[in-house]
Amino acid sequence: MERNDFEVDLKKIIRENTYVSINDEDFKDNTDLIVDLGFDSLSIVKLIADIEKYFKIEFEINELVSEVIASYGNLKKCVSNKINKEV
Amino acid sequence: MKNQNLSDLIEYAYKHVKYYHELFDNMGIDASSIQSAEDLIKIPILKKDTIQEKMTDFISDEYQKFPKNENIEIKRTSGSTGKYLKIYWDYKDDIKSLMPLWTLRSRLYGIDPKMKWCSFYSTRYEGNKIKPLLPKEINLNGRHMGFSKIGLTYKKIEDSYRDILEFNPDWMLLQPSIAYLMSQIIKEQNLPVPSNLKYIEMSGEYLFDNYKKQIEETFGVCTANQYGCNEANEMAYEFKCRNMHVIENNVIIEVLKDGKPVINEEGDIYVTSLKNFAMPFIRYQTGDRGILINDHNCSCKNNAPILKVNSGRSSDFIKLENGEKMNSYVLANIVEYTNENMSSAIKQFQITQTDINKFNVNLVVKSSYSGWKKAISECFLNNIQEEELKDAEWNFIFSDEICPDVKTGKFKYFINELI
Q: Could you say which residues of chain B have pLDDT below 50?
């Protein structure tokens, strides 16, 4: 998977899981999924499931309870590491 | 190892919370030097009494004014220690702190947030206003059925269970005593189990091994124990290995004995919430006792410390004149409403049932309310909603403090001398 496709796809999945309207410039590394993008504990779980399914990856338990999914930057980095892409 | 979440919280608490700012300055503590869990020992422990006396000193200055005060939601202590406290959260931080629990439920037990579920609740707030209690309500577009746990008798739990059968949830969040009573009802009356039920999570009280066994056998589903408090939300969660692991991005847990941290030894459990910025709790005494195990090779592969809670909250039952039993949560609720009417005058309470229809109400009130004993007593009586309790004899005793049981060292907010 090409780097550009990866991020495009990740942003698409994030957009599909929130009711907040998100522009490309809203996707900064320190963008908080809950505070800035309107995710709650329920939609976060669905987001994780959709990311895992689409990219055919699996988050570890330790990753699920860490800050990896709290910010867009952390999430992006974690997903890219799992699909063996440099970001 | 540096814990960035902890550093951020400590810096914030120093900057925005009067109590911590003064404490650090008075003790010469450099907030930036608190980088890891090991550094926490530089900060004195915090007890509920200290917060009760100067409540506003513990709330962030940002949340005492617009716009952040619009984000506040209020919770309260369960009253399990008899010490009443209102707790402030930013609703966004509350959501963040709930996130790990939802992801664990999903990964370990297959619980999807869109599934139907049931739970029992006590007092709730909308923002900073107490909500009227309904015996039952349906929320979240029909996904959640909630029941009031106030005034619960065996009959009311049975009625609730019949509603649950009809609702047919995928999972339930229950206090162990309620789950256990439900399992008794199912066995005695040979009732079915909801056909969709796949998981029961238990929280809010000490979970006895025999309770867990009976609940699992009767319902035929996985159960998980969860340990938390409204001050810090979820602190530890039971994995399939049957151990409760600390939820490390939510809290730092310490077990102290004679004021010193211990590992693999029983002591008092203290918590530092890494998520509550509106009202930070740092090295806060939970009132529970337990053991923390750091070095382990747990089969679940989770490296987080294992927490064994050895004692804590349990709820006895009130014995009624008609022979029925009523859950003692009702008493904590009466105190809650009394405090709503009397500006949180009651700091601590312990109620003892000495005979059928006879109760001693032992209250510790704030020093500024020492002249208000009659008014507080009358307010308490006016807040008794349950018909079964209205005609009982209530003897009020006002004390300077209420101590744990001298034999066991435990504190219970309700004691039933008839049992």
A: 409
Q: What is the pLDDT of residues A10-45, one digit of tens each?
A: 999 999 988 788 888 999 999 988 888 888 777 888
Give the C-alpha separation, B360 to B350, whole Å: 8
**Do B103 and A40 lie within an 8 Å CB cutoff?**
no
What is d(CA B105, CA B113) in angstroms, rounded to the nearest whole number? 9
pLDDT at A87 over 50: no
Q: Does B101 touch chain A (CB under 8 A)?
A: yes
Which chain A residue's Cα is nearest to B92?
A35
Which CATH number characterizes residue B361's domain? Answer: 3.30.300.30
Question: Is B383 within a domain?
Answer: yes
Our count of domains for chain B comes to: 1
Whole-number pLDDT of residue A9: 94
- Say if B406 falls within a structural domain: yes
Query: By the CB < 8 Å criterion, does B144 face chain A?
Result: no
Quick check: B5 contacting A, CB < 8 Å? yes
Q: DSSP letters of B227-288? A: EEETTTEEEEEE-TTSPEEE-TTTEEEEEEETTEE-SSS-EEEEEEESS--SS---SEEEEE
In total, chain A counts a number of residues equal to 87
Q: How far is B104 from chain A (nearest CA, A)?
A: 7
B248: contact with A, CB 8 A cutoff: yes
Nearest-Cα residue of chain A relative to residue B247: A65
Go through the domains of chain A in sequence order and give each one's CATH number: 3-82 (1.10.1200.10)
Inter-chain CB proximity B301 and A61 less than 8 Å: yes
The reported pLDDT for the residue numbered B128 is 62
- pLDDT bucket at A86, cuts 50 / 70 / 90: very low
* Residue-level pLDDT at B15: 98
- Residues spanned by the domain of B361: 317-416
Residue B167 falls inside a structural domain = no
Pick from A33, A34, A41 the residue to mutate for testing the B interface (most B CBs within 10 Å): A41
SS3 B42: helix
Residues of A with CB under 8 A from a CB of B: 34-35, 40-46, 48-49, 59, 61-62, 64-67, 69-70
Inter-chain CB pairs, A–B, below 8 Å: 61
pLDDT at B207: 80
CA–CA gap between residue B97 and residue B234 (Å, rounded): 7
In this prediction, residue A39 carries a pLDDT of 85
Pairing of strands B233-238, B244-246: antiparallel
Task: Determine the residue of chain A that is closest to B90 in CA distance.
Answer: A35
On the CB side of A40, how many CA atoms lie within 13 Å of its CA?
8
Q: Would residue B289 count as lying in a domain? A: no
